[in-house]
Write a structure and sequence with these properties.
The chain has helices at 166-169, 236-243; strands at 24-25, 47-48, 50-51, 55-61, 66-70, 77-79, 86-92, 98-107, 110-111, 115-121, 193-198, 204-210, 214-222, 229-235, 251-252, 259-265, 270-278, 285-295. The protein contains two helices and 18 strands. The strands form five sheets. Strands 3, 5, 6, 8, 9 and 10 form a six-stranded mixed β-sheet that branches. The chain has a four-stranded antiparallel β-sheet with strand order 11-18-13-16, with no helix packed on it. The chain is mainly beta and 298 residues long.
Protein backbone atom coordinates (compact mmCIF):
# COMPACT_ATOMS: atom_id res chain seq x y z
CA UNK A 1 0.00 0.00 0.00
CA UNK A 2 1.34 3.42 -0.92
CA UNK A 3 2.00 5.92 1.82
CA UNK A 4 1.64 9.18 -0.12
CA UNK A 5 -0.47 12.05 1.17
CA UNK A 6 -3.82 12.19 -0.57
CA UNK A 7 -4.33 15.51 -2.30
CA UNK A 8 -7.77 16.48 -3.59
CA UNK A 9 -8.50 15.23 -7.07
CA UNK A 10 -9.20 18.25 -9.28
CA UNK A 11 -11.71 16.99 -11.81
CA UNK A 12 -15.07 18.12 -13.09
CA UNK A 13 -17.76 15.47 -12.57
CA UNK A 14 -20.34 16.05 -15.27
CA UNK A 15 -24.05 15.75 -14.58
CA UNK A 16 -25.70 12.33 -14.55
CA UNK A 17 -27.14 10.81 -17.69
CA UNK A 18 -30.93 10.65 -17.72
CA UNK A 19 -32.34 7.21 -17.05
CA UNK A 20 -34.42 7.26 -20.23
CA UNK A 21 -31.36 7.47 -22.47
CA UNK A 22 -30.84 4.31 -24.53
CA UNK A 23 -27.79 2.32 -23.58
CA UNK A 24 -27.65 3.33 -19.92
CA UNK A 25 -28.84 1.79 -16.71
CA UNK A 26 -28.89 2.74 -13.06
CA UNK A 27 -26.42 1.54 -10.45
CA UNK A 28 -25.44 -2.13 -10.50
CA UNK A 29 -24.37 -3.17 -7.00
CA UNK A 30 -23.83 -6.90 -6.38
CA UNK A 31 -24.69 -8.50 -3.08
CA UNK A 32 -21.91 -9.45 -0.74
CA UNK A 33 -21.77 -6.86 2.05
CA UNK A 34 -18.74 -5.00 3.33
CA UNK A 35 -15.29 -6.19 4.34
CA UNK A 36 -14.72 -5.17 7.95
CA UNK A 37 -16.94 -2.14 7.49
CA UNK A 38 -15.54 -0.93 4.13
CA UNK A 39 -18.44 -0.96 1.71
CA UNK A 40 -18.14 -1.58 -2.01
CA UNK A 41 -18.16 1.54 -4.21
CA UNK A 42 -21.60 2.53 -5.43
CA UNK A 43 -22.19 3.55 -9.03
CA UNK A 44 -24.75 6.21 -8.16
CA UNK A 45 -25.21 7.69 -11.63
CA UNK A 46 -26.60 6.09 -14.74
CA UNK A 47 -23.69 4.23 -16.36
CA UNK A 48 -23.69 3.17 -20.03
CA UNK A 49 -23.99 -0.52 -20.82
CA UNK A 50 -22.94 0.15 -24.41
CA UNK A 51 -20.92 2.90 -26.05
CA UNK A 52 -19.27 3.61 -29.42
CA UNK A 53 -16.29 5.17 -27.62
CA UNK A 54 -13.00 3.57 -26.62
CA UNK A 55 -13.65 4.21 -22.92
CA UNK A 56 -16.48 4.53 -20.42
CA UNK A 57 -16.88 6.98 -17.54
CA UNK A 58 -17.68 5.22 -14.26
CA UNK A 59 -19.19 7.68 -11.78
CA UNK A 60 -20.05 6.87 -8.22
CA UNK A 61 -19.42 7.37 -4.53
CA UNK A 62 -17.07 5.70 -2.04
CA UNK A 63 -15.97 5.88 1.58
CA UNK A 64 -12.44 4.86 0.58
CA UNK A 65 -9.40 6.92 -0.35
CA UNK A 66 -8.61 5.22 -3.67
CA UNK A 67 -10.56 3.59 -6.46
CA UNK A 68 -9.13 0.68 -8.50
CA UNK A 69 -10.89 -0.57 -11.64
CA UNK A 70 -9.85 -3.84 -13.29
CA UNK A 71 -11.21 -5.68 -16.32
CA UNK A 72 -10.04 -3.29 -19.02
CA UNK A 73 -7.41 -4.13 -21.67
CA UNK A 74 -4.60 -2.08 -20.10
CA UNK A 75 -4.49 -3.34 -16.53
CA UNK A 76 -5.79 -1.66 -13.35
CA UNK A 77 -6.85 2.01 -13.40
CA UNK A 78 -6.25 3.87 -10.12
CA UNK A 79 -7.96 7.15 -9.19
CA UNK A 80 -8.46 9.35 -6.15
CA UNK A 81 -12.03 10.30 -5.19
CA UNK A 82 -13.00 13.85 -4.34
CA UNK A 83 -13.10 14.81 -0.64
CA UNK A 84 -16.89 14.34 -0.84
CA UNK A 85 -16.37 10.68 -1.81
CA UNK A 86 -17.54 11.22 -5.40
CA UNK A 87 -15.39 9.63 -8.07
CA UNK A 88 -15.25 9.48 -11.84
CA UNK A 89 -12.94 7.11 -13.72
CA UNK A 90 -12.37 6.90 -17.47
CA UNK A 91 -11.79 3.18 -18.16
CA UNK A 92 -10.53 1.89 -21.55
CA UNK A 93 -12.63 -0.84 -23.21
CA UNK A 94 -11.90 -3.75 -25.53
CA UNK A 95 -12.84 -2.82 -29.09
CA UNK A 96 -16.01 -4.57 -30.27
CA UNK A 97 -16.24 -6.68 -27.11
CA UNK A 98 -17.94 -6.87 -23.74
CA UNK A 99 -15.88 -5.79 -20.72
CA UNK A 100 -16.74 -6.79 -17.15
CA UNK A 101 -15.31 -4.01 -14.99
CA UNK A 102 -14.65 -4.60 -11.30
CA UNK A 103 -14.46 -1.55 -9.02
CA UNK A 104 -12.96 -1.73 -5.51
CA UNK A 105 -11.93 0.92 -3.00
CA UNK A 106 -8.98 1.04 -0.57
CA UNK A 107 -8.85 2.61 2.88
CA UNK A 108 -6.53 2.06 5.81
CA UNK A 109 -5.13 -1.17 4.40
CA UNK A 110 -8.59 -2.61 3.65
CA UNK A 111 -9.86 -3.62 0.21
CA UNK A 112 -13.63 -3.48 -0.28
CA UNK A 113 -15.82 -6.08 -2.00
CA UNK A 114 -16.12 -5.34 -5.74
CA UNK A 115 -18.87 -3.62 -7.64
CA UNK A 116 -19.14 -5.02 -11.17
CA UNK A 117 -20.42 -3.33 -14.32
CA UNK A 118 -20.60 -4.78 -17.84
CA UNK A 119 -20.07 -2.50 -20.86
CA UNK A 120 -20.13 -3.38 -24.56
CA UNK A 121 -18.03 -1.33 -26.98
CA UNK A 122 -20.12 -1.13 -30.16
CA UNK A 123 -19.42 1.40 -32.90
CA UNK A 124 -23.15 1.40 -33.78
CA UNK A 125 -24.27 2.25 -30.23
CA UNK A 126 -25.58 5.74 -29.42
CA UNK A 127 -23.05 8.08 -27.84
CA UNK A 128 -23.85 8.50 -24.12
CA UNK A 129 -24.31 11.89 -22.53
CA UNK A 130 -21.30 13.16 -20.55
CA UNK A 131 -19.03 10.42 -21.94
CA UNK A 132 -15.80 11.53 -20.21
CA UNK A 133 -14.76 12.34 -16.66
CA UNK A 134 -12.01 14.56 -17.99
CA UNK A 135 -11.09 15.46 -21.57
CA UNK A 136 -7.95 13.89 -23.04
CA UNK A 137 -4.48 15.43 -22.76
CA UNK A 138 -4.97 16.53 -19.13
CA UNK A 139 -6.40 19.92 -20.18
CA UNK A 140 -2.89 21.32 -20.36
CA UNK A 141 -2.09 20.30 -16.76
CA UNK A 142 0.04 17.21 -17.29
CA UNK A 143 3.04 16.79 -14.97
CA UNK A 144 5.29 18.30 -17.65
CA UNK A 145 3.60 21.68 -17.03
CA UNK A 146 5.69 24.00 -14.86
CA UNK A 147 4.72 23.71 -11.21
CA UNK A 148 2.59 20.59 -11.74
CA UNK A 149 5.04 18.47 -9.73
CA UNK A 150 4.88 20.67 -6.63
CA UNK A 151 1.22 21.73 -6.41
CA UNK A 152 -0.09 18.71 -4.46
CA UNK A 153 -2.55 17.88 -7.25
CA UNK A 154 -3.07 14.79 -9.37
CA UNK A 155 -2.80 16.77 -12.60
CA UNK A 156 -2.75 13.83 -15.00
CA UNK A 157 -5.41 11.86 -13.06
CA UNK A 158 -3.28 8.74 -12.63
CA UNK A 159 -3.77 8.48 -8.86
CA UNK A 160 -0.39 9.99 -7.88
CA UNK A 161 0.82 13.45 -6.92
CA UNK A 162 4.13 15.34 -7.05
CA UNK A 163 7.18 13.14 -6.23
CA UNK A 164 4.97 10.04 -6.13
CA UNK A 165 4.00 10.54 -9.78
CA UNK A 166 6.42 8.65 -12.03
CA UNK A 167 6.23 11.46 -14.59
CA UNK A 168 7.55 13.82 -11.93
CA UNK A 169 10.14 11.57 -10.28
CA UNK A 170 11.39 10.18 -13.58
CA UNK A 171 11.58 6.74 -11.98
CA UNK A 172 11.16 3.83 -14.42
CA UNK A 173 9.32 0.98 -12.71
CA UNK A 174 9.68 -2.74 -13.47
CA UNK A 175 7.74 -5.01 -15.82
CA UNK A 176 5.33 -6.22 -13.11
CA UNK A 177 3.69 -2.81 -12.77
CA UNK A 178 1.02 -1.84 -11.97
CA UNK A 179 1.31 -3.83 -8.71
CA UNK A 180 1.41 -1.19 -5.97
CA UNK A 181 -1.70 -2.58 -4.21
CA UNK A 182 -3.00 -6.00 -3.09
CA UNK A 183 -5.45 -6.03 -6.01
CA UNK A 184 -4.91 -7.65 -9.42
CA UNK A 185 -1.54 -8.91 -8.11
CA UNK A 186 0.70 -10.41 -10.85
CA UNK A 187 2.21 -13.89 -10.54
CA UNK A 188 5.92 -14.15 -9.83
CA UNK A 189 7.69 -16.80 -11.93
CA UNK A 190 9.56 -19.20 -9.65
CA UNK A 191 13.13 -20.46 -9.69
CA UNK A 192 14.62 -17.45 -11.44
CA UNK A 193 16.11 -14.15 -10.34
CA UNK A 194 14.11 -11.03 -11.23
CA UNK A 195 15.54 -7.51 -11.53
CA UNK A 196 12.85 -5.33 -9.92
CA UNK A 197 12.43 -1.69 -8.95
CA UNK A 198 10.78 0.30 -6.17
CA UNK A 199 9.83 3.84 -7.15
CA UNK A 200 8.85 6.58 -4.65
CA UNK A 201 5.54 5.65 -2.94
CA UNK A 202 5.11 2.59 -5.21
CA UNK A 203 5.26 -0.67 -3.25
CA UNK A 204 5.45 -4.10 -4.91
CA UNK A 205 2.97 -6.99 -4.52
CA UNK A 206 3.75 -10.35 -6.14
CA UNK A 207 1.69 -13.55 -6.04
CA UNK A 208 2.73 -17.21 -5.72
CA UNK A 209 0.54 -20.30 -5.46
CA UNK A 210 1.59 -22.87 -2.87
CA UNK A 211 0.35 -26.40 -2.33
CA UNK A 212 0.02 -27.70 1.19
CA UNK A 213 3.23 -29.11 2.64
CA UNK A 214 5.49 -27.20 0.29
CA UNK A 215 8.14 -24.70 1.39
CA UNK A 216 8.60 -21.22 -0.05
CA UNK A 217 11.98 -19.50 0.13
CA UNK A 218 12.25 -15.88 -0.99
CA UNK A 219 15.56 -14.04 -1.19
CA UNK A 220 15.83 -10.30 -1.80
CA UNK A 221 18.97 -8.24 -2.31
CA UNK A 222 19.01 -4.51 -2.95
CA UNK A 223 21.27 -3.18 -5.69
CA UNK A 224 22.49 -0.47 -3.29
CA UNK A 225 23.61 -1.61 0.18
CA UNK A 226 22.25 1.66 1.58
CA UNK A 227 18.73 1.12 0.21
CA UNK A 228 16.55 -0.07 3.11
CA UNK A 229 13.85 -2.53 2.06
CA UNK A 230 11.43 -4.74 3.96
CA UNK A 231 9.58 -7.84 2.79
CA UNK A 232 6.51 -9.61 4.20
CA UNK A 233 4.39 -12.63 3.29
CA UNK A 234 0.59 -12.73 3.53
CA UNK A 235 -2.21 -15.08 2.62
CA UNK A 236 -3.98 -13.46 -0.31
CA UNK A 237 -7.31 -13.31 1.54
CA UNK A 238 -5.73 -11.49 4.48
CA UNK A 239 -4.17 -8.86 2.24
CA UNK A 240 -7.26 -8.39 0.07
CA UNK A 241 -10.02 -8.44 2.70
CA UNK A 242 -8.53 -8.23 6.14
CA UNK A 243 -6.29 -5.23 5.77
CA UNK A 244 -2.59 -5.98 5.54
CA UNK A 245 -1.72 -2.99 7.73
CA UNK A 246 -3.77 -4.29 10.64
CA UNK A 247 -3.14 -8.02 10.16
CA UNK A 248 -0.01 -9.82 11.30
CA UNK A 249 1.84 -11.24 8.27
CA UNK A 250 2.76 -14.90 8.04
CA UNK A 251 6.39 -13.85 7.84
CA UNK A 252 8.15 -10.50 8.27
CA UNK A 253 11.78 -10.35 7.13
CA UNK A 254 12.02 -7.40 9.46
CA UNK A 255 15.64 -6.34 9.06
CA UNK A 256 14.91 -3.21 7.05
CA UNK A 257 18.31 -3.55 5.41
CA UNK A 258 19.23 -4.20 1.79
CA UNK A 259 19.02 -8.02 2.09
CA UNK A 260 15.90 -9.91 3.18
CA UNK A 261 15.00 -13.60 3.48
CA UNK A 262 11.63 -15.28 4.07
CA UNK A 263 10.88 -19.00 4.47
CA UNK A 264 7.40 -20.45 4.92
CA UNK A 265 5.95 -23.96 5.05
CA UNK A 266 2.43 -23.85 3.61
CA UNK A 267 -0.11 -25.45 5.93
CA UNK A 268 -2.77 -25.29 3.23
CA UNK A 269 -2.97 -24.80 -0.52
CA UNK A 270 -3.72 -21.32 -1.76
CA UNK A 271 -2.52 -17.97 -3.04
CA UNK A 272 0.14 -16.06 -1.13
CA UNK A 273 1.35 -12.48 -1.61
CA UNK A 274 4.92 -11.23 -1.24
CA UNK A 275 4.91 -7.57 -0.16
CA UNK A 276 8.06 -5.48 -0.77
CA UNK A 277 8.42 -1.84 0.22
CA UNK A 278 11.00 0.77 1.14
CA UNK A 279 11.22 1.73 4.81
CA UNK A 280 11.39 5.31 3.48
CA UNK A 281 8.09 6.07 1.74
CA UNK A 282 9.91 8.14 -0.90
CA UNK A 283 12.71 5.58 -1.26
CA UNK A 284 13.68 4.40 -4.72
CA UNK A 285 16.04 1.70 -5.94
CA UNK A 286 16.50 -1.61 -7.67
CA UNK A 287 16.56 -5.06 -6.10
CA UNK A 288 16.84 -8.70 -7.10
CA UNK A 289 14.21 -11.21 -5.98
CA UNK A 290 14.28 -15.01 -6.19
CA UNK A 291 11.47 -17.32 -5.05
CA UNK A 292 11.74 -21.11 -4.94
CA UNK A 293 9.25 -23.78 -3.86
CA UNK A 294 10.26 -27.24 -2.68
CA UNK A 295 8.45 -30.28 -1.32
CA UNK A 296 8.71 -30.64 2.43
CA UNK A 297 10.26 -33.92 3.42
CA UNK A 298 9.85 -35.20 6.98
Amino acid sequence: MSRLSLAPLVALLAASCVAEDPGVREEHQPDGGAALGLEAPRLVSAVPVQTPLASVALRGKTAGSRIIVTGGPNGPVVKLPLPSGDFCVDVPLRAGESSTLSVVTLEGGLVSPPTEHVVVQDSAAPKPANPYCDPPACNGSCPTTEGACTDGKDNDLDGWTDDCDLDCSGCVDDVFEPNSYPAAVPFLPLDETHDLKLCPCHDDWLAVYLKADTKLDVNLKGDDPGFNINMKLYRAEDAEKGGYKSNTPLRDAGSGGSEEVISWKADKSGMYYIYVYSTNSKGSGGYKLTATVSKVTE
